[in-house]
Protein 1
Amino acid sequence: MASRKALSLLLVVVAGLCLICGNVQALGVASDPCTTDNDCGQGLYCFSCDGASPVCAIDSATPVSSFSQNYSLPFNKYAWVTTHNAYAIVGETSILGVTIVSQKNQEDSITSQLNKGVRGLMLDIYELNGDIWLCHSVYRQCYDFTAFRPLNTTLIEIEAFLTANPTEVITIFFEDYVNTTNALTTALTATGLSKYMFPLAKMPTDGSDWPTVSSMITSNERLLVFTSNRNKQAGEGIAYQWNYVLENQYGTVALTCDRRGESALLTDKTKTLFLQNYFPTNPNRTTACLDNSDNLSKALNVCSSATGNRWANFLAVDYYQRSTSKGVFKAVDTLNGQLQCGCEDIRACEGSTGPGICSVVTAPVATPRTPPPPSPPTALPPGTPSSAGALSSSFSALVVCLAMLLVAHSTH
Ligand SMILES: *[C@@H]1O[C@H](CO)[C@@H](O)[C@H](O)[C@H]1NC(C)=O
Ligand SMILES: *[C@@H]1O[C@H](CO)[C@@H](O)[C@H](O)[C@H]1NC(C)=O
Ligand SMILES: *[C@@H]1O[C@H](CO)[C@@H](O)[C@H](O)[C@H]1NC(C)=O
Ligand SMILES: *[C@@H]1O[C@H](CO)[C@@H](O)[C@H](O)[C@H]1NC(C)=O
Ligand SMILES: *[C@@H]1O[C@H](CO)[C@@H](O)[C@H](O)[C@H]1NC(C)=O
């Protein structure tokens, strides 16, 4: 009799646990089908690539610092999600009151990009009306109808993020058509960014490792700025990109990895940072879904072969949030894994005791989303599932289950 009682109790406990587990698993992990964001776990959103069935897609970066490799390694051992033409945002209107006719490459604000884990920003700058503007050009010339916004407004957003997040490091790549001496320096100073700039003197040019990310955080030198204008390195102390960074050709999503004209050979070992471009000449929201998916992962291996086993530190894409599931965030997890422990995912570096010693990456378990900020109560349409409803239905099922067991028990 006593053992029977114990068995019943065990059944109740098991049934209860199953219900609770079932409830957690109902949250989707990457690639699971969904109807709304609430069907997906933390860091995911419900996204449909232009008519395809919606799936839970990864929406923000894995914080590198949450794994064993944290920020104790040299800067060149990390990879960062990078937005190509980060400033060319769909739906923005210009303060000049004219329609922006240029191509768009991203869909959310710079602040939102940073909040989601983007850490590399590619920005094109031109002079317009006596100021510096983020702009696309027509034959190297910026016009009112191709200009997005004054550079200052974006620099202020970056400054606010660095100030609010004292352990984050950002890299800016300026495609720089600003010829006025010191104009860029003035903008960096006026917006409070100069104080965060990583000094030129600490940037290695002989193939040696960069300082560690943790030392960059400690010294509060958390902004790397590169310019495509050679004169500004000697003139203004802003690093000339091609002295430090290698790049493959942009404007192609073919599975090839050729050198970009301005870059040194991709096998040049004196330059310790590598930016991998993976976007077509004409940005396209539909094709971005596919480009930022399986082929993006394949492209990492293609470039690794072409560069003599180098893995990119910056992975630059258009419409970075778009993919059919894991997208650029998964690709950057792969790059961090390769850079830090020779494994295919940063998670496999946990507990790694040497290159290529990879721990088994278990399937991710969906963690509940952080509740959204409180909003005025709204009536749910009848039958709308909610997490509170799911919990209470688990609870009532548990009660029913318990009652049935008790009934079954008493009849014996
Ligand atoms: C970072 O990793 C190193 C080496 O594994 C470890 O010694 C250090 O305590 C870690 N730091 C943090 C902040 O987790
Ligand atoms: C800026 O300088 C470059 C190189 O000297 C020159 O080709 C270009 O025309 C100049 N641009 C403007 C807007 O003056
Ligand atoms: C904006 O940038 C210009 C340089 O183009 C600078 O002179 C000015 O002080 C900046 N304004 C603000 C509000 O930061
Ligand atoms: C992936 O790339 C290959 C080779 O360039 C191409 O044939 C294929 O269509 C691409 N796949 C997708 C889904 O875009
Ligand atoms: C984007 O690509 C799709 C599929 O190839 C094509 O049908 C569409 O016309 C393209 N859109 C633009 C704006 O180029």
Note: The two ends are 10 Å apart (CA to CA).
Protein 2
Amino acid sequence: MIERTIRTGDDRVKEKKMYECEFCNAVYPDEEKAQKCEKNHKTLKKCEVSRWLPIDESWTGFPETVKVTFDDGQYAFYKRI
Ligand SMILES: [Zn+2]
């Protein structure tokens, strides 16, 4: 988590302490909420190809879908767009 000080106003400068989630860069005035946001993001543990396409369907060589396993053991499939 990043702690930021933001200055507002011209002649009467006010400082505000803000907290930024290091994963999605959302900024919160509340440190607890920023920590909650960070803990909510799943981090990658493993990524593996789930499906390839024949060259007649895709000449790029990129996989069509991949399976991503996260640090908590849950997984999700992602499809190329
Ligand atoms: Zn976040």
Note: The pocket of zinc ion is lined by residues 21, 23-24, 26, 37-38, 41 (CB under 6 Å).
